[in-house]
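On clarity, I found the account of how folds are encoded harder to follow than it need be. Since the whole study asks how a given chain folds, the encoding of that fold should be made plain. For illustration, here is how one protein appears when written out as sequence plus structure tokens:
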Amino acid sequence: MRGCRKMALKALDIYKLLPKKNCKECGDPTCLTFAMKLAGGKADVSLCPYLDDHAKAVLGASTRPPIRLVKIGVGERSFKIGEETVLYRHEKTFYHPPGIIFRIPDTLPEEEIAKITRRVRDETFTRVGSDLRFSGIAIENTSGSAKTFENAVAAVERQQCHLPPVLIAKDPAAFSGALVHCGSYRPLLHAATPGNYKEMCALAKQHGCPLVIRANSIDGLVQLVKDCTAEGVQDLLLDTAPTTLGDFVARSTDIRQLAITRAIPELGYPVYLDATATGSQDAALILGIVKYASVIVTDPLTPGPAKAALTLRQNIYTDPQKPIQMNPGLYRVGTPDKKAPVLMTVNFSLTFFTLQGYLESTRIPCFMLIVDTEGLSVLTAVAAGKLSEMLVRDSIKKFGVEDEVSHRKLIIPGYASPLSGRIEDATGWKVLVGPRDAAEIGDYLVEEWKKASGA
């Protein structure tokens, strides 16, 4: 089944298929530059107006993302999955965070269904400046009754939250009534199997829905992909039907490897995981986030595991080559006056929010001068030369710090102490070296700042 490996073309292979006109109409100075971008997935073949049909076919198959992009839901809460290009995050980055979906059995009372739905709709966890939320609601036909299933879906939709729905049923006939209530919201349908794929494909085509296919082997998934695409359904997810965590990790890793190397193009689709099916939901959720699941269905999580899952997802899907950054500028903590202290730090988000949190707890109004170190931490920025006296001087002028305070005293982080003298010379401000640990900033302001300011 594996067949021959279809590797992505290298830049020189792509260049041989280009017209070599160096016309610049694609936006690049040479065809070789364009070829390098194509090889890296940073350009589209349609940008070249001179490609023949053969070259378009070859390059299109080789340079588009090896895993199909699929959209779940509609509107503001919709989310995209797939379009990943690497096996390991550090190679480049992961792009589309997995949707974490809370499961609702259709046997629950309506008030409990409404409660869980409102939680997913409203619950937000804010971390380093980002609002983290769960992604949608999965309604499962555990009752076996099509009418009960329809009523549960209707109860979710009565909350008018337009969360991306996942509909789970074994009998294709059960979907018809449920889709009356949410068919226009692009729900994800679970699942097509060798025994029902024609009926499930018909439903997916009728309502424009993405479809999960389910098989417990790679070969079985490949065959179902061929069958479903032949029926005209292109937006698919792969459910490997794992019964243990080991099953899931092995199969999802195989799928990712075979997809990104294009060894088996039929596996180039996002992966679906039922975290409750492997015996340990919390462990399955963690492994799903780090090992390639794009949609993860769980029972509603308690606050601790909920925050842990959202934090892990944020960390894994942050570009390792682009640290989370704050916009440089002058920020206020409380309502500072002309005598308030000014604390300088870098625009690495974790540094900013950690310091801001400790400053707020002191209840001492102050200013935070955030300088642009391209998202590097203080210690890294000093070592790399990104934090310099000239940057501090220019930031003081750019953000009008001199107009906000009557003094000329600047508190810098403890790890920036080697720059203190140079900053004084460049700015004319008296530099005070603060603590290395932000947790000590409260005591520092009480003791050192009051002493320095004559308060």
Observations:
- Residues 226 and 378 are 53 Å apart (CA to CA).
- Residues 1-6 have pLDDT under 50 and may be disordered.
- The chain is about 40% helix and 15% strand.
- The longest strand covers residues 99-105.
